[in-house]
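@channel anyone free to eyeball this complex?
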Amino acid sequence: MVQQALGHLVHDPGNIGPALEKIDAALAAPDQDGVSVAELEQAKAALQTGNSTQGRVLLQESISVALSTLRPATGEETGTTVLLDPLPPRSGLTGADWGILTVSMLAVLTGLVLAYMFRPAENVHELRLLLAWKHRRQEVPPKHERSRRKER
Amino acid sequence: MSGHGERSGESDMNDETARIGGQTPAQAPRPGRARRLMDVIDERLGIGALGYAVPEHANSLAWSLGGVTAAAFGILMLSGILLVQFYSPTPETANQSVRGIVNDVWGGSVLRGVHFWASQAMYVTAALHLIRVFVTGSFKRPREGNWLIGVALFALITLALFTGTVLKWDQEGFEALGHNVEIGNLLGGAGFWFSAEFANQVSILVRIYGAHVVILPGTILVLMTLHGLLVKRHKISPHPSLPADVSGEQAAAVEPTEPFTHHLRRIGAFGLVLAGVLGILAVLLPPPVGATPVAGIEVTRPPWNFWWLYTLEDWFGLPAILFAEIAFFLFLAAVPFVDRSRNRLWRRRPVSIAAGLLLLLSILTLTLLILVLPVKEHLGA
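replying in thread with the prediction:
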Protein backbone atom coordinates (compact mmCIF):
# COMPACT_ATOMS: atom_id res chain seq x y z
CA MET A 1 0.00 0.00 0.00
CA VAL A 2 2.93 2.31 0.67
CA GLN A 3 4.26 1.52 -2.81
CA GLN A 4 0.80 2.21 -4.22
CA ALA A 5 0.85 5.62 -2.49
CA LEU A 6 4.24 6.26 -4.09
CA GLY A 7 2.85 5.14 -7.45
CA HIS A 8 0.01 7.66 -7.26
CA LEU A 9 2.48 10.42 -6.34
CA VAL A 10 4.71 9.53 -9.31
CA HIS A 11 1.91 9.37 -11.87
CA ASP A 12 -0.23 12.23 -10.60
CA PRO A 13 1.99 14.52 -8.52
CA GLY A 14 -0.60 17.29 -8.44
CA ASN A 15 -3.22 15.16 -6.68
CA ILE A 16 -2.19 13.78 -3.30
CA GLY A 17 -5.69 12.51 -2.41
CA PRO A 18 -5.26 8.91 -3.67
CA ALA A 19 -1.78 8.71 -2.05
CA LEU A 20 -3.16 9.87 1.33
CA GLU A 21 -5.93 7.25 1.07
CA LYS A 22 -3.33 4.53 0.57
CA ILE A 23 -1.22 5.84 3.51
CA ASP A 24 -4.29 5.81 5.77
CA ALA A 25 -5.04 2.25 4.67
CA ALA A 26 -1.43 1.25 5.45
CA LEU A 27 -1.61 2.91 8.87
CA ALA A 28 -4.83 1.03 9.64
CA ALA A 29 -3.60 -2.32 8.26
CA PRO A 30 -3.36 -5.18 10.78
CA ASP A 31 -0.05 -6.41 9.31
CA GLN A 32 2.58 -3.67 9.47
CA ASP A 33 5.61 -5.96 9.56
CA GLY A 34 8.70 -4.25 8.12
CA VAL A 35 6.98 -0.86 7.86
CA SER A 36 8.12 2.11 9.97
CA VAL A 37 4.85 3.57 11.17
CA ALA A 38 6.58 6.68 12.54
CA GLU A 39 8.11 7.50 9.14
CA LEU A 40 4.80 6.76 7.48
CA GLU A 41 3.07 9.30 9.70
CA GLN A 42 5.81 11.84 9.01
CA ALA A 43 5.36 11.22 5.30
CA LYS A 44 1.63 11.84 5.61
CA ALA A 45 2.27 15.08 7.48
CA ALA A 46 4.80 16.20 4.87
CA LEU A 47 2.35 15.52 2.06
CA GLN A 48 -0.40 17.38 3.85
CA THR A 49 1.84 20.41 4.19
CA GLY A 50 2.53 20.28 0.43
CA ASN A 51 6.05 18.90 0.68
CA SER A 52 5.66 15.97 -1.68
CA THR A 53 9.42 15.52 -2.25
CA GLN A 54 10.01 15.00 1.47
CA GLY A 55 6.86 12.87 1.58
CA ARG A 56 8.15 10.56 -1.14
CA VAL A 57 11.54 10.15 0.55
CA LEU A 58 9.90 9.29 3.86
CA LEU A 59 7.48 6.87 2.24
CA GLN A 60 10.36 5.08 0.51
CA GLU A 61 12.34 4.91 3.78
CA SER A 62 9.34 3.64 5.73
CA ILE A 63 9.36 0.36 3.79
CA SER A 64 13.14 -0.15 3.57
CA VAL A 65 13.09 -3.02 6.12
CA ALA A 66 10.22 -4.79 4.34
CA LEU A 67 11.98 -4.42 0.98
CA SER A 68 15.29 -5.76 2.33
CA THR A 69 13.66 -9.10 3.10
CA LEU A 70 12.17 -9.56 -0.38
CA ARG A 71 13.02 -12.73 -2.33
CA PRO A 72 13.63 -12.51 -6.09
CA ALA A 73 10.30 -11.75 -7.75
CA THR A 74 8.31 -14.67 -9.14
CA GLY A 75 4.88 -14.95 -10.74
CA GLU A 76 3.24 -11.57 -11.08
CA GLU A 77 5.42 -9.74 -8.54
CA THR A 78 6.79 -6.41 -9.70
CA GLY A 79 10.24 -6.70 -8.10
CA THR A 80 10.13 -2.94 -7.55
CA THR A 81 12.14 -1.76 -4.57
CA VAL A 82 12.73 1.88 -5.41
CA LEU A 83 10.04 3.74 -7.29
CA LEU A 84 11.73 5.62 -10.12
CA ASP A 85 10.13 8.54 -11.94
CA PRO A 86 9.48 8.23 -15.67
CA LEU A 87 12.66 8.78 -17.65
CA PRO A 88 12.74 12.47 -18.56
CA PRO A 89 12.83 13.26 -22.30
CA ARG A 90 16.18 14.30 -23.76
CA SER A 91 16.95 17.99 -23.81
CA GLY A 92 18.38 18.30 -27.33
CA LEU A 93 19.99 16.53 -30.23
CA THR A 94 23.58 15.33 -29.98
CA GLY A 95 26.07 15.21 -32.84
CA ALA A 96 25.37 11.49 -33.30
CA ASP A 97 21.63 12.26 -33.48
CA TRP A 98 22.25 14.76 -36.27
CA GLY A 99 24.37 12.18 -38.06
CA ILE A 100 21.62 9.54 -37.82
CA LEU A 101 19.04 12.10 -38.96
CA THR A 102 21.14 12.93 -42.01
CA VAL A 103 21.67 9.27 -42.91
CA SER A 104 17.96 8.58 -42.39
CA MET A 105 16.94 11.44 -44.66
CA LEU A 106 19.39 10.23 -47.31
CA ALA A 107 17.85 6.76 -47.01
CA VAL A 108 14.37 8.22 -47.51
CA LEU A 109 15.47 10.20 -50.57
CA THR A 110 17.39 7.27 -52.08
CA GLY A 111 14.45 4.96 -51.44
CA LEU A 112 12.04 7.37 -53.09
CA VAL A 113 14.28 7.79 -56.13
CA LEU A 114 14.70 4.00 -56.44
CA ALA A 115 10.96 3.42 -55.98
CA TYR A 116 10.35 5.93 -58.79
CA MET A 117 12.99 4.34 -61.01
CA PHE A 118 11.60 0.85 -60.42
CA ARG A 119 7.96 1.92 -60.87
CA PRO A 120 5.85 -0.27 -63.15
CA ALA A 121 5.78 0.74 -66.80
CA GLU A 122 2.00 1.22 -66.68
CA ASN A 123 -0.29 2.20 -63.85
CA VAL A 124 -3.66 0.50 -63.39
CA HIS A 125 -5.48 3.06 -65.55
CA GLU A 126 -2.99 2.60 -68.37
CA LEU A 127 -3.13 -1.17 -67.96
CA ARG A 128 -6.91 -1.02 -68.27
CA LEU A 129 -6.62 0.89 -71.55
CA LEU A 130 -3.88 -1.41 -72.81
CA LEU A 131 -5.80 -4.59 -72.00
CA ALA A 132 -9.00 -3.16 -73.53
CA TRP A 133 -7.04 -2.35 -76.71
CA LYS A 134 -5.52 -5.85 -76.81
CA HIS A 135 -8.97 -7.33 -76.28
CA ARG A 136 -10.41 -5.32 -79.18
CA ARG A 137 -7.52 -6.35 -81.39
CA GLN A 138 -8.16 -10.01 -80.65
CA GLU A 139 -11.83 -9.62 -81.54
CA VAL A 140 -11.17 -7.88 -84.84
CA PRO A 141 -10.08 -10.42 -87.50
CA PRO A 142 -6.74 -9.79 -89.26
CA LYS A 143 -6.73 -7.57 -92.35
CA HIS A 144 -6.33 -10.36 -94.93
CA GLU A 145 -9.32 -12.22 -93.43
CA ARG A 146 -11.43 -9.07 -93.58
CA SER A 147 -10.59 -8.57 -97.27
CA ARG A 148 -11.39 -12.24 -97.97
CA ARG A 149 -14.80 -11.77 -96.35
CA LYS A 150 -15.43 -8.75 -98.57
CA GLU A 151 -14.55 -10.78 -101.67
CA ARG A 152 -17.13 -13.37 -100.65
CA MET B 1 19.41 -44.96 -96.09
CA SER B 2 17.74 -44.78 -92.77
CA GLY B 3 21.02 -45.54 -91.09
CA HIS B 4 22.66 -42.70 -92.94
CA GLY B 5 19.79 -40.40 -92.02
CA GLU B 6 20.08 -41.29 -88.34
CA ARG B 7 23.76 -40.71 -88.39
CA SER B 8 23.25 -37.42 -90.07
CA GLY B 9 20.73 -36.41 -87.38
CA GLU B 10 23.18 -37.47 -84.69
CA SER B 11 25.83 -35.38 -86.27
CA ASP B 12 23.50 -32.33 -86.36
CA MET B 13 22.69 -32.79 -82.69
CA ASN B 14 26.35 -32.96 -81.84
CA ASP B 15 26.88 -29.80 -83.79
CA GLU B 16 24.08 -28.07 -81.91
CA THR B 17 25.47 -28.98 -78.52
CA ALA B 18 28.93 -27.95 -79.54
CA ARG B 19 27.87 -24.55 -80.89
CA ILE B 20 26.33 -21.66 -79.02
CA GLY B 21 24.57 -19.13 -81.23
CA GLY B 22 26.48 -20.37 -84.27
CA GLN B 23 29.78 -20.07 -82.43
CA THR B 24 31.95 -22.75 -80.89
CA PRO B 25 32.40 -22.46 -77.07
CA ALA B 26 35.84 -21.03 -77.64
CA GLN B 27 34.40 -18.24 -79.81
CA ALA B 28 31.34 -17.47 -77.55
CA PRO B 29 31.79 -14.35 -75.38
CA ARG B 30 32.51 -15.32 -71.77
CA PRO B 31 29.88 -13.99 -69.34
CA GLY B 32 31.07 -11.39 -66.84
CA ARG B 33 32.46 -12.35 -63.45
CA ALA B 34 29.32 -11.20 -61.61
CA ARG B 35 27.12 -13.18 -64.01
CA ARG B 36 29.23 -16.29 -63.52
CA LEU B 37 29.09 -15.86 -59.72
CA MET B 38 25.31 -15.55 -59.91
CA ASP B 39 25.15 -18.66 -62.07
CA VAL B 40 27.27 -20.60 -59.57
CA ILE B 41 25.02 -19.50 -56.69
CA ASP B 42 21.86 -20.15 -58.68
CA GLU B 43 23.02 -23.63 -59.62
CA ARG B 44 23.46 -24.48 -55.95
CA LEU B 45 20.70 -22.52 -54.23
CA GLY B 46 18.11 -22.19 -56.98
CA ILE B 47 17.60 -18.44 -56.49
CA GLY B 48 16.66 -18.21 -60.17
CA ALA B 49 13.27 -19.56 -59.08
CA LEU B 50 12.59 -16.06 -57.71
CA GLY B 51 12.40 -14.77 -61.27
CA TYR B 52 8.85 -16.06 -61.86
CA ALA B 53 6.45 -13.70 -63.61
CA VAL B 54 4.09 -11.47 -61.64
CA PRO B 55 1.42 -9.28 -63.25
CA GLU B 56 2.41 -5.65 -63.58
CA HIS B 57 -0.36 -4.32 -61.32
CA ALA B 58 1.36 -6.05 -58.37
CA ASN B 59 4.19 -3.50 -58.44
CA SER B 60 2.12 -0.62 -57.07
CA LEU B 61 2.56 0.49 -53.45
CA ALA B 62 -0.89 -0.78 -52.43
CA TRP B 63 -0.06 -4.27 -53.72
CA SER B 64 3.40 -4.19 -52.13
CA LEU B 65 2.21 -3.56 -48.56
CA GLY B 66 2.76 -7.20 -47.57
CA GLY B 67 6.36 -6.83 -48.67
CA VAL B 68 6.73 -3.57 -46.73
CA THR B 69 5.37 -5.41 -43.66
CA ALA B 70 8.06 -8.06 -44.19
CA ALA B 71 10.67 -5.28 -44.47
CA ALA B 72 9.46 -3.84 -41.13
CA PHE B 73 9.74 -7.34 -39.65
CA GLY B 74 13.32 -7.59 -40.90
CA ILE B 75 14.18 -4.26 -39.23
CA LEU B 76 12.50 -5.48 -36.04
CA MET B 77 14.50 -8.71 -36.03
CA LEU B 78 17.77 -6.86 -36.56
CA SER B 79 17.14 -4.17 -33.94
CA GLY B 80 15.69 -6.79 -31.58
CA ILE B 81 18.82 -8.96 -31.82
CA LEU B 82 20.89 -5.92 -30.84
CA LEU B 83 18.53 -4.92 -28.02
CA VAL B 84 18.57 -8.33 -26.31
CA GLN B 85 22.32 -7.91 -25.77
CA PHE B 86 21.58 -5.15 -23.25
CA TYR B 87 18.14 -6.03 -21.88
CA SER B 88 17.74 -7.86 -18.58
CA PRO B 89 14.42 -9.74 -18.31
CA THR B 90 14.10 -10.02 -14.53
CA PRO B 91 11.53 -7.85 -12.74
CA GLU B 92 14.12 -6.27 -10.44
CA THR B 93 16.32 -5.08 -13.29
CA ALA B 94 14.16 -4.89 -16.45
CA ASN B 95 13.11 -1.23 -16.18
CA GLN B 96 16.63 -0.23 -15.13
CA SER B 97 18.14 -2.07 -18.10
CA VAL B 98 15.83 -0.21 -20.51
CA ARG B 99 17.01 3.05 -18.93
CA GLY B 100 20.55 1.78 -19.34
CA ILE B 101 19.96 1.12 -23.06
CA VAL B 102 18.63 4.67 -23.49
CA ASN B 103 21.26 6.47 -21.39
CA ASP B 104 24.42 4.37 -21.34
CA VAL B 105 24.58 2.33 -24.56
CA TRP B 106 25.97 4.23 -27.55
CA GLY B 107 23.12 4.65 -30.01
CA GLY B 108 20.86 2.73 -27.63
CA SER B 109 18.13 5.36 -27.62
CA VAL B 110 17.95 5.37 -31.42
CA LEU B 111 18.12 1.57 -31.53
CA ARG B 112 15.19 1.30 -29.11
CA GLY B 113 13.36 4.00 -31.04
CA VAL B 114 13.83 2.17 -34.33
CA HIS B 115 12.55 -1.05 -32.74
CA PHE B 116 9.52 0.72 -31.26
CA TRP B 117 8.60 2.59 -34.45
CA ALA B 118 9.24 -0.49 -36.61
CA SER B 119 6.71 -2.38 -34.49
CA GLN B 120 4.18 0.40 -35.08
CA ALA B 121 4.99 0.41 -38.80
CA MET B 122 4.58 -3.35 -39.01
CA TYR B 123 1.20 -3.15 -37.28
CA VAL B 124 -0.01 -0.34 -39.56
CA THR B 125 1.28 -1.84 -42.83
CA ALA B 126 -0.10 -5.28 -41.91
CA ALA B 127 -3.50 -3.67 -41.19
CA LEU B 128 -3.39 -1.73 -44.47
CA HIS B 129 -2.36 -4.90 -46.34
CA LEU B 130 -5.31 -6.72 -44.76
CA ILE B 131 -7.66 -3.91 -45.81
CA ARG B 132 -6.26 -3.90 -49.37
CA VAL B 133 -6.69 -7.67 -49.69
CA PHE B 134 -10.24 -7.37 -48.36
CA VAL B 135 -11.24 -4.47 -50.64
CA THR B 136 -9.76 -6.01 -53.81
CA GLY B 137 -11.23 -9.44 -53.02
CA SER B 138 -7.79 -11.07 -53.18
CA PHE B 139 -8.82 -13.54 -50.46
CA LYS B 140 -11.24 -15.31 -52.79
CA ARG B 141 -10.88 -18.83 -54.18
CA PRO B 142 -8.28 -20.38 -54.18
CA ARG B 143 -6.62 -18.03 -51.69
CA GLU B 144 -8.88 -18.57 -48.63
CA GLY B 145 -6.23 -20.53 -46.74
CA ASN B 146 -3.66 -17.82 -47.29
CA TRP B 147 -6.15 -15.22 -45.99
CA LEU B 148 -6.46 -17.27 -42.77
CA ILE B 149 -2.66 -17.37 -42.46
CA GLY B 150 -2.65 -13.59 -42.92
CA VAL B 151 -5.25 -13.16 -40.18
CA ALA B 152 -3.19 -15.40 -37.88
CA LEU B 153 -0.13 -13.28 -38.70
CA PHE B 154 -2.02 -10.12 -37.77
CA ALA B 155 -3.00 -11.71 -34.44
CA LEU B 156 0.63 -12.65 -33.80
CA ILE B 157 1.81 -9.13 -34.67
CA THR B 158 -0.71 -7.75 -32.15
CA LEU B 159 0.57 -10.19 -29.53
CA ALA B 160 4.19 -9.24 -30.28
CA LEU B 161 3.26 -5.58 -29.83
CA PHE B 162 1.57 -6.39 -26.53
CA THR B 163 4.46 -8.44 -25.16
CA GLY B 164 6.90 -5.72 -26.21
CA THR B 165 4.87 -3.23 -24.17
CA VAL B 166 5.17 -5.47 -21.10
CA LEU B 167 8.94 -5.91 -21.46
CA LYS B 168 9.81 -2.31 -20.60
CA TRP B 169 8.34 -3.16 -17.21
CA ASP B 170 6.98 0.24 -16.34
CA GLN B 171 3.54 0.98 -14.96
CA GLU B 172 1.93 0.84 -18.42
CA GLY B 173 3.55 -2.50 -19.22
CA PHE B 174 2.68 -3.97 -15.84
CA GLU B 175 -0.96 -2.91 -16.11
CA ALA B 176 -1.12 -4.39 -19.61
CA LEU B 177 0.19 -7.64 -18.16
CA GLY B 178 -2.40 -7.45 -15.37
CA HIS B 179 -5.16 -7.27 -17.99
CA ASN B 180 -3.65 -10.21 -19.82
CA VAL B 181 -3.46 -12.32 -16.67
CA GLU B 182 -7.12 -11.58 -15.85
CA ILE B 183 -8.15 -12.47 -19.41
CA GLY B 184 -6.18 -15.70 -19.00
CA ASN B 185 -8.19 -16.40 -15.84
CA LEU B 186 -11.43 -15.69 -17.73
CA LEU B 187 -10.44 -18.32 -20.29
CA GLY B 188 -10.11 -20.88 -17.51
CA GLY B 189 -7.94 -23.85 -18.45
CA ALA B 190 -7.43 -22.53 -21.98
CA GLY B 191 -5.69 -19.45 -20.61
CA PHE B 192 -3.21 -21.41 -18.50
CA TRP B 193 -0.14 -19.98 -20.24
CA PHE B 194 -1.13 -16.43 -19.29
CA SER B 195 -1.60 -17.21 -15.61
CA ALA B 196 1.24 -16.64 -13.16
CA GLU B 197 0.40 -19.95 -11.44
CA PHE B 198 1.35 -21.97 -14.54
CA ALA B 199 5.06 -21.62 -13.66
CA ASN B 200 5.08 -19.82 -10.35
CA GLN B 201 8.76 -20.44 -9.68
CA VAL B 202 9.73 -17.92 -12.38
CA SER B 203 8.51 -14.43 -13.06
CA ILE B 204 5.86 -14.14 -15.75
CA LEU B 205 8.07 -11.39 -17.24
CA VAL B 206 10.68 -14.02 -18.13
CA ARG B 207 8.05 -16.10 -19.92
CA ILE B 208 6.71 -13.03 -21.73
CA TYR B 209 10.30 -12.29 -22.77
CA GLY B 210 10.66 -15.82 -24.12
CA ALA B 211 7.45 -15.37 -26.11
CA HIS B 212 8.57 -11.99 -27.45
CA VAL B 213 12.04 -13.00 -28.60
CA VAL B 214 11.54 -16.63 -29.62
CA ILE B 215 8.00 -17.99 -29.84
CA LEU B 216 6.28 -15.06 -31.56
CA PRO B 217 8.98 -14.01 -34.06
CA GLY B 218 9.67 -17.66 -34.83
CA THR B 219 6.01 -18.37 -35.54
CA ILE B 220 5.68 -15.14 -37.53
CA LEU B 221 8.70 -16.14 -39.61
CA VAL B 222 7.30 -19.61 -40.34
CA LEU B 223 3.83 -18.29 -41.23
CA MET B 224 5.28 -15.45 -43.29
CA THR B 225 7.34 -17.96 -45.31
CA LEU B 226 4.25 -20.11 -45.83
CA HIS B 227 2.27 -16.97 -46.77
CA GLY B 228 4.88 -16.07 -49.40
CA LEU B 229 5.09 -19.61 -50.77
CA LEU B 230 1.31 -19.73 -51.14
CA VAL B 231 1.37 -16.37 -52.95
CA LYS B 232 3.84 -17.96 -55.38
CA ARG B 233 1.73 -21.09 -55.74
CA HIS B 234 -1.60 -19.28 -56.28
CA LYS B 235 0.07 -16.36 -58.10
CA ILE B 236 -0.79 -12.71 -57.45
CA SER B 237 -4.56 -12.26 -57.57
CA PRO B 238 -6.06 -10.36 -60.49
CA HIS B 239 -6.75 -6.66 -60.06
CA PRO B 240 -10.52 -6.21 -59.67
CA SER B 241 -10.70 -3.46 -62.26
CA LEU B 242 -8.64 -5.35 -64.86
CA PRO B 243 -9.78 -8.33 -66.90
CA ALA B 244 -9.00 -11.73 -65.36
CA ASP B 245 -8.53 -15.09 -67.09
CA VAL B 246 -11.44 -17.46 -67.85
CA SER B 247 -11.43 -18.94 -64.32
CA GLY B 248 -11.51 -15.46 -62.82
CA GLU B 249 -8.79 -16.55 -60.38
CA GLN B 250 -5.70 -15.29 -62.22
CA ALA B 251 -4.69 -12.14 -64.02
CA ALA B 252 -5.34 -12.19 -67.77
CA ALA B 253 -2.56 -13.74 -69.83
CA VAL B 254 -2.38 -10.57 -71.93
CA GLU B 255 -1.49 -8.41 -68.90
CA PRO B 256 2.21 -7.48 -69.01
CA THR B 257 4.35 -9.21 -66.40
CA GLU B 258 7.63 -8.54 -64.65
CA PRO B 259 9.92 -10.98 -62.85
CA PHE B 260 9.27 -11.30 -59.13
CA THR B 261 12.81 -10.04 -58.53
CA HIS B 262 11.67 -6.65 -59.90
CA HIS B 263 8.79 -6.74 -57.41
CA LEU B 264 11.34 -7.45 -54.66
CA ARG B 265 13.52 -4.61 -55.95
CA ARG B 266 10.64 -2.15 -55.58
CA ILE B 267 9.80 -3.51 -52.11
CA GLY B 268 13.46 -3.00 -51.23
CA ALA B 269 13.14 0.65 -52.28
CA PHE B 270 10.02 1.07 -50.13
CA GLY B 271 11.88 -0.69 -47.30
CA LEU B 272 14.69 1.84 -47.58
CA VAL B 273 12.18 4.69 -47.30
CA LEU B 274 10.67 2.96 -44.26
CA ALA B 275 14.08 2.49 -42.62
CA GLY B 276 14.84 6.18 -43.13
CA VAL B 277 11.50 7.27 -41.69
CA LEU B 278 12.05 4.99 -38.69
CA GLY B 279 15.48 6.54 -38.11
CA ILE B 280 13.98 10.04 -38.19
CA LEU B 281 11.17 9.08 -35.80
CA ALA B 282 13.61 7.30 -33.46
CA VAL B 283 15.69 10.48 -33.13
CA LEU B 284 12.88 13.03 -32.96
CA LEU B 285 10.23 11.03 -31.08
CA PRO B 286 11.97 8.45 -28.87
CA PRO B 287 9.54 6.16 -27.03
CA PRO B 288 9.14 7.00 -23.33
CA VAL B 289 10.15 4.83 -20.36
CA GLY B 290 7.64 5.04 -17.53
CA ALA B 291 8.04 4.76 -13.77
CA THR B 292 8.94 1.41 -12.19
CA PRO B 293 5.72 -0.58 -11.67
CA VAL B 294 3.59 -0.82 -8.58
CA ALA B 295 0.97 -3.52 -8.12
CA GLY B 296 -2.61 -2.66 -7.17
CA ILE B 297 -3.02 0.69 -8.93
CA GLU B 298 -4.32 1.47 -12.43
CA VAL B 299 -3.22 4.87 -13.64
CA THR B 300 -2.13 4.45 -17.27
CA ARG B 301 -3.71 3.91 -20.66
CA PRO B 302 -2.66 1.14 -23.03
CA PRO B 303 -0.82 1.79 -26.34
CA TRP B 304 -3.08 3.33 -29.03
CA ASN B 305 -3.41 0.00 -30.83
CA PHE B 306 -5.56 -1.24 -27.93
CA TRP B 307 -7.58 1.92 -27.24
CA TRP B 308 -10.73 0.56 -28.88
CA LEU B 309 -10.63 -2.37 -26.48
CA TYR B 310 -10.01 -0.05 -23.55
CA THR B 311 -13.16 1.94 -24.35
CA LEU B 312 -15.18 -1.28 -24.46
CA GLU B 313 -13.61 -2.31 -21.15
CA ASP B 314 -14.70 1.02 -19.66
CA TRP B 315 -18.28 0.38 -20.73
CA PHE B 316 -18.69 -3.35 -20.17
CA GLY B 317 -15.82 -4.41 -17.90
CA LEU B 318 -12.72 -6.47 -18.47
CA PRO B 319 -14.38 -9.48 -20.21
CA ALA B 320 -15.28 -7.10 -23.07
CA ILE B 321 -11.61 -7.15 -24.15
CA LEU B 322 -11.70 -10.90 -24.58
CA PHE B 323 -15.05 -11.05 -26.34
CA ALA B 324 -14.26 -8.10 -28.64
CA GLU B 325 -10.93 -9.65 -29.67
CA ILE B 326 -12.58 -13.01 -30.34
CA ALA B 327 -15.39 -11.34 -32.34
CA PHE B 328 -12.87 -9.26 -34.32
CA PHE B 329 -10.74 -12.21 -35.38
CA LEU B 330 -13.78 -14.44 -36.02
CA PHE B 331 -15.12 -11.72 -38.33
CA LEU B 332 -11.83 -11.65 -40.22
CA ALA B 333 -11.60 -15.43 -40.39
CA ALA B 334 -15.18 -15.72 -41.68
CA VAL B 335 -14.64 -13.27 -44.58
CA PRO B 336 -13.70 -15.80 -47.32
CA PHE B 337 -16.46 -18.19 -46.28
CA VAL B 338 -19.17 -15.54 -46.30
CA ASP B 339 -18.12 -13.42 -49.29
CA ARG B 340 -17.89 -16.29 -51.79
CA SER B 341 -19.07 -14.62 -54.99
CA ARG B 342 -16.61 -14.37 -57.86
CA ASN B 343 -16.91 -10.59 -57.87
CA ARG B 344 -13.78 -8.83 -56.71
CA LEU B 345 -14.76 -5.26 -57.46
CA TRP B 346 -15.91 -3.50 -54.28
CA ARG B 347 -18.96 -1.98 -55.97
CA ARG B 348 -20.30 -5.45 -56.69
CA ARG B 349 -19.88 -6.61 -53.07
CA PRO B 350 -22.00 -4.05 -51.19
CA VAL B 351 -22.82 -6.25 -48.17
CA SER B 352 -19.30 -7.35 -47.29
CA ILE B 353 -17.81 -3.93 -48.03
CA ALA B 354 -20.47 -2.28 -45.83
CA ALA B 355 -19.78 -4.78 -43.02
CA GLY B 356 -16.04 -4.16 -43.29
CA LEU B 357 -16.54 -0.41 -43.33
CA LEU B 358 -18.81 -0.63 -40.28
CA LEU B 359 -16.17 -2.63 -38.40
CA LEU B 360 -13.44 -0.17 -39.34
CA LEU B 361 -15.51 2.86 -38.37
CA SER B 362 -16.50 1.23 -35.07
CA ILE B 363 -12.85 0.59 -34.20
CA LEU B 364 -11.89 4.14 -35.17
CA THR B 365 -14.74 5.65 -33.12
CA LEU B 366 -13.94 3.51 -30.07
CA THR B 367 -10.27 4.46 -30.45
CA LEU B 368 -11.02 8.19 -30.52
CA LEU B 369 -13.47 7.95 -27.60
CA ILE B 370 -10.62 7.15 -25.23
CA LEU B 371 -9.53 10.78 -25.52
CA VAL B 372 -12.64 11.89 -23.64
CA LEU B 373 -12.89 8.98 -21.19
CA PRO B 374 -11.21 9.19 -17.78
CA VAL B 375 -8.73 6.50 -16.67
CA LYS B 376 -10.68 3.88 -14.71
CA GLU B 377 -9.63 0.95 -12.56
CA HIS B 378 -10.70 -2.40 -13.97
CA LEU B 379 -8.22 -4.89 -12.56
CA GLY B 380 -9.62 -6.93 -9.70
CA ALA B 381 -12.94 -5.11 -10.07
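from a first look: Strands of chain B lie at 53-55, 257-259.
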